[in-house]
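Most newcomers find our protein records easier to grasp once they have seen one. Sequence and backbone structure share a record, each on its own labelled line. Nothing more is needed to start thinking about how sequence determines fold. As an example, a complete record with its sequence and its structure tokens follows.
=====
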Amino acid sequence: MKQSSKYKISGLVYVRRWLGLVCGTLAGVALAGCARLALVTVNVAADFSDYTRQTNLVYGTSAAAKLDLYLPVHRKHNPIVIFFYGSAWNGGDKASYKFVGAALADAGIIAVVPNYSLYPQAKFPTFMQDAAKAIAWTRSHAREWDGDPNQIYLVGHSAGAHIAVMLALDQEYLQQVGGTTNWLRGVVGLAGPYDFLPFTEEYLNDLFGPPENFSRSQPINYVRKDAPPLLLMHGLKDQRVSPRNTISLAAAMQAVGGRVNTRYFERAGHADLVAAFSIPQRNKLPVFKDIKSFIDSDGVLKVPSHN
């Protein structure tokens, strides 16, 4: 698994924190195998929630354009969250985030978890275009599940936060699918890279290149007053995506009069923010509670902005 000191992280790396719990002191257990076991443990716990799951629904024409849908038991004009997982734009799979979809559905929120095109098979902005198509598809089908197409929120972790926030700020991608950023009621970024030039790993030069396009990859270059409300969360002990990304973007949004809430967790690392969706980890950080509050209050976080 590749890593970078500045921003890069697999959305699944949080399972390393589970190794002591799941593997205990068993000698000779390989890290990868133990990590898989920890991930299975988290997703098995999700089965205790009450929801309906539909898998591999096709939302676009690319090979990756499939999504999983999580429906609450009680539905009547429910809000919708589209969750974009992280993994440095070159890995990950929607099936690994069952615990996220289950948490949202259990809270009465319709959850959509799409796959999207990954490097090296695809480069920027292909995954952005996939993500925009997932939003358009969700909006067009929302009423079929008693969802409210006017209450679509994006939530993303790490590279997924980059995708979610970029969709809120750069109007190009939703315009390409006949939409507007007004489709988005609010956007939550968890430990996201928003201002990460210069790149710290060689493959990123290819992923986001050629060099004249590098600036297009940075959400901070698209701040605007009329963007959807943002809730940006970051752990101050994050050693993979520097908290500077969130601090810089929040300051830039505030400077133009944009709507932005921030939440910093003094003792949290990068993976902790997505792990907080899981049943065993949910009470350790108020990430899930804050997201629910943000949605319930229509894009306003009614808690202190710093922790």
Residues 31-46 form the longest helix (16 residues).
